[in-house]
Each structure stands twice: as structure tokens, then as C-alpha cells.
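Thread title: Can someone regenerate the structure for this chain?

I was given the following input by a collaborator and told the matching C-alpha cells would be attached. They weren't. Posting the sequence so someone can regenerate them.
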Amino acid sequence: MTMKYGKTQIHVWTPLIGFEKEASDKGASGMLSKIPFVPDGVSAFVYHMDFIMQHEGMDEERILPPDMCSYAGSARNGERERQEWTNYELKDLLVELNKSGTETYLSIMADRLDNRFHDEWIYEHPEVIYDAKTGKGALNVMRRFADGTFFEDYFIDKLCQTLLDYGFTGFYPTDLFCPMSWRVSMGDYSADMLEQFAQHTEIKLPPDILGDMGNDSDENKCRRGEWLWNEHREAWIRFYAWRWGVFWKKLCDRLHAIDKKVISLGVYCTDPFENLYCMGIDLKVLYEAGVDGLVPNIVPTGMRLQHPDWRDPFYNYMNMLPFISAYVPEQKLYTMLGVRDDTEEWDLIHHVPTNLERDIYMLSGFMRVTPEGMKRCTDGFMVCLGDSLRKEDWQWLKERFDIGFYEGAVESESPTLIWSDAAFHALLPSYIETRRWTHHKYAYEMNRRGTLLGAVARIEDMGYVKGTLFVPNFDLLPESEQKIITGYKRGAVICTAMKGFVPEDYGIQPDIYLEDAFSKYPACAFAFGCDLEERTKMQIEALCRTDDGMPNPEGDAKDIPEYECTILRETLKFSKVTEGFADAVALLLRKTGREKITSNLPINVIKTANGRYRIAVLNPSLTSYGYAVISGTDVIKHAESIGRYPLLPLKYMNSPDDKVSFLNSIQDGTKKHFRVKVAPGGMAIIEVEI
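Best answer:
Regenerated them for you:
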């Protein structure tokens, strides 16, 4: 009998086209037989929210419209043509899936398709459509009907009835539902949302705004938006965070009362700060409201392949996971794993499998230091999408899951980033005034420069951390937390702050101090507790002496216009940080961490319970093989690849500059170096005993 996957939770997100309705069990066994374990959850992606809004009970059998039978009504996937499902047939499918031991979730988007496949409910209630400055988006779940009643109350009633009638385990809303279609800088600037804002904050609306409250023209919405964003930006953002909390508290309380679970997308390719600033969503508020699980929408490879003109978002998106884990450590996180989507027409498992393998290893490798030891940042994957994955595809995925979800992590040999809730909240007003780099920006810019971080830790768990610390924006920490950092004695500490911060004023005698001399809002960096050679120190300092020629923003930083494009492409604008300064911080981190093991390619090193070191080696090149030279300070007793590539024994070397043929060089117990060939855009996993 097939059992659940023992190493982590695996959920499958699939539209109905992934099942064969003509089968006696509606295709449940057909899909599950391809998967070499029973998934923890199957989210039936009926796509259109009218599955809920137009649900009228189960007294009669009704044909579901095409845009509920496949994603956006797509005509076919890799297995079959779209089929015509009825409400009874879907209920029968759920019965069969539940028998297998998997949970079943109702999954929707809040998109609108201009009545293409059926008469859509939202066009009968345009007052709940999101009002941007210029134009309209999809649904705004926080809006009120024309009679003054809240949409959310009506929706939750309909949702509870739908879940009970069909027998779903829970609810999983996604794109355009939460978060919504536009960033909060663009709206919703309807009279309805402004009235809710004024009532909650007790901020008085000026006469010219009050005078146009009956008119939601683009001109009036623009005037409201400019006033709010210029005069009350922080209050507007925090209002949205509060309002989302009200919505989710109502929904979770009602669903939990009928024994149903709630999983939310909630996170759209941004870290906790960007999610707050851009989308008005505070992830801790969602957790406190009762959301059972979040799905960080980490799909960098799919986005890169579809948008070659975008800057590669790999490090940006990937770092979302450890930051969310640090901010909401109790929250279950089912990380989105983009594998294949026939409707959006991208296929990573067949077109760029080495990139997908890298995604799996990177996401499963992020660790957080806790009092109970090293904890993996993710609780599992939400496989996107599962409707036409073949049996051999699932076996391929399982082999990588087995490697990625290893046990026995003890401590990080790579730098550990320190997270502070207090600094997170202090960042919002500081960012508005200066556009300084956020903690997340520092992390992924270090990654882009070849410095991978090994783990993340909440500042209250500092007593369990060893090795090098990275503390971005030290000046935003409260004094009590600054003292915790300055008292650290188990490794080097590298901090950043804004210019004007004097380490000596806090009892810190820095071993090195760096300053960005070419920026309007300059950052500084300093390190203590490290033993830098004078030559290394001079090399790091030299990087800061050259301007990169990039312009500083004109005027005040708070007046820099926001991105108006999709949140998937761009999130935050920043003041200039000179390339040389960022390069210097990255080099400083590399020179103070990983004392036992180094490499010419980016690596993350974790010590395991058996005394060995697990090395994840990343090849930044997407078009050529990488040649990583791994060096140990001591003789390497044993080293082997535990991934699926490379296949041959590792090539040992007398020095990092040795030439190596494709033939294996024999390990004689005296070598400190070996070479690893890494697939294009891939990651190799090596286990080393020193």
C-alpha cells in the first residue's frame, strides 16, 4: 500500500482536467497511481470564484462551465481534452480522493474573464471590483455592496455551504484573491476604501477629497491616491494590513468552526517587508488570524523563462522563504514548486530540469536556527501544477526530494542572517524616508555576488547560533537587541547601517569599517570579532573607492515614484548603493565565514550530525558547466556526490590550480582539494569528511 511521503509534506495543485471523469472513480486512482506516495493534499483548482458565488446546493445535477473544468477554460493539457464536469461528478471525485488519505482543498483565483464562458457574478456587483488609480482590477474582498453590507460576510456564508456540500477538507485561494491584483500604491482608491480607512485611522479627509466621495472617476481616484501616498503612506499600508487581518479572522473562525482548514497564497514573490509595503499584507497578522498554512509563491525559473527581458529573479524570489520562516516561525509553509503549467505554457521538468533540480535543493536546504536545533524553513512543497505530470516525472521529483529533504543538520558553516521583528517594523518609516536597502535586498545582493547564506535565526535564538553573523540594518535594532549582537563571541559579526552610525558609540571596536562614499543616502558596514589579514583588509577597502557611475535619485527619496508594473516583475525602488560597496560587503562575508571549506563557486555548507559537511554547490551560469574547486583547511578524508550528478568519483587535486582530466584521480589521504563539475544552472550536493 502506498504511504504518505515521510520526509516532508507534498501537496498537489491541479485543475480538473488532470482527472478522467469517465473512469469509475472519476480518475482519482489514475492520478494517484502516478505518484509514488500519497500526497498530503490535493487542491482541486476549479479556477473561477463563481464555483462558490453561484453555488446553489446539491439538490440538482448541474454542468460546470468550462472555466471551472480547466484553468481559465483551457482546451487541453498534455493528457486530454477539457471534459465537461458536473457538480455531482466532482463530489464523487472528492469522495475517492478522501478515501486515499489525502486532504482535498477547494482552490480558486479571483480573476474575471468578461463573461467569456458563463455569465459571471462579479459583473452583477461591480461595486466589489478593485478600483486602481486608472482602471479596474479583479475582486477586492474587502469592499462593500451597494447596500453597505460587506462582501466578505456574504462570501464566507457561500464558501462554508460549498465546502460542506462537496466535502472539501479546506480552502486554498490564490492569485488576485489574496493578494489582490494591484499594489496598494495604486489603490484601491474607491470612496468605499477611503471611508473604511478614515473610520479606522480617524484621519480626517480634506475638503477636496470629501467633496468627490460620490464620484469614483479616474481623476478623483488619482487625487485621493496622491494625497494618501504622499501624506499618509505608512498609515495607508498599515490600514490594509489591519483590514486583511479582519477578513482572514472572520474566514478562519467560520471555517474552523465547521472543521475546515485554510491555506492562503498570501505571498506574491516578495519577502515579508515587500509584501507589507507593496501588497499591504502583514504575514504575521495572517497567522494570528488563524491561517493554517501559507504558500510562498517562489517560481523564479518559470518567470525567467517566460520573461527573458526581466532581470533573473532567482536569488530575489528564493530568499523569500528563509525570511518568512524567520518572521512567522510557527506558520506552516508549503512552498510553491513550479514544475509545469500547460495553460501558461511552461515546463521546467522537461525543458530545464537542471534548473528545477537547483530550485528543489535550494528551497529544501534553507535552515533556521532554533532552540530545538536546525529546522528546515519549509514544511513542504505545493507542486504546481500536477495535472499532466507523468509517472516518470513524479519519480524524478521524488528522487530529488529524497536528496533535498535530508536529516541531521547541526550548524551552518556559512554566515547566518539575524532576523528581528522590531527592526522589521522600524524599517517601514525608514524605507519611506530614505529608500535604504532592506534586509532581504542585502541578502539577495550578497547571493548575486557569490556569497550564499547558510541559515537564518531570530534574534531571541542567538544563544543557539555559532559562526559568522550577518546583521543588515543594525541601526534599526532597539538598544536591547544591539547589546545581544555586540555581546556575541562565537564568531565574526558583519553589520550594515546608514552613514552617521558610529560603532564606537555602542562599545564596538570594528576590525574594519566601510562607507559608501558615492551615494546620497550612504550605507556603512563594519565587522568585529574577525581576524582579517592586512592584505585581505586592503582588498576589501579598495572595492569601496570607485564610483560605478550610477546616478543618485533626484529630490527626496520618499518622492521616488513606485513601480506601476506587476509585482512579479519589480517590487521596491532603492536609493543608490555603489556596486563596489556591495562587492566589499560580500567579500567580507566570504572571508570571515566557512573557515574549513572554501570554493571558487557559490556554496552553502552545513555540518551534519555524523560529523560530515554537506556542501551545496551552485553554478550561476545557465549556459555552461561550472567547475567548482572545493578546498579544505585540513586533509579531505572522504568526499562524494550524493546528488544525481556528477556520476563519476570526484577529482582530487594537489592544489586548486591543478589541471584535471575526465579520468578520476585517486584519493591517497593527502589531498585538500577536489573538483566538482556542476550542470548549467544547476546545483551539486557533496558530502565531505575532513
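The first strand starts at residue 9 and ends at 15.
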